[in-house]
Amino acid sequence: MMKKFLAILLVLTMALCLFACGGEETETPDNNDKENVGGEENNDGGNAEVKGETYSTGSFSALVPEGWKAFPVTDFWSDDADAKDPDALQIVKGGETDWDLFTKPYIEFDYHGPSESMMTPSSEWYDNATDLEPITAGKYTWNGFSATSMDVPMVILWAEDGDHQYQATIWTDQGDGTISITDADVLAILASVAPAA
Description:
Blueprint: H1 2-20, E1 35-38, E2 50-56, E3 60-65, E4 68-74, E5 84-93, E6 106-112, E7 127-131, E8 135-137, E9 140-149, E10 152-161, E11 164-171, E12 173-174, E13 177-178, H2 184-192, E14 194-195
Antiparallel strand pairs: 1-2, 2-3, 3-14, 4-5, 5-6, 6-11, 7-9, 8-9, 9-10, 10-11, 12-13
């Protein structure tokens, strides 16, 4: 019963976040248009050339591959209704507007800097949870599990780089498409996260 309550709470929070964004298309700021090529090794030891642009939230950055779009996340703790959370980012495959978060697969990052401590997600909060073997993407080793939330498949991963911690929630199968944690684009995104310079 508690798992279902937490899952419902999570979905309602996500919906509230999306409605707070106003459904408007968000343009990537000009200072985030650096072209990048991800050539990180995947789990099979091969190299994948993934082209895209680096998007910075102010606290951290990540690669946004061609065919994907970055959406900032509303900062609900700010008094400014238009403020964006510098510690969160959503990257949607095939996204055009933030409404696509309901219908397309995407990755949501949460960043925790040196002055914060990340609470490691618990698989007990989700249905059908299965621990995953660690995933290597670039210099990071991502630990995590697959699960479902309100019958929607997802993967939750976390990694550390010194005092910098990242959590990636990957919504793998959403109506208009699917992604996998072994996809070259997904691995390149996971390999690319870095604290802002």
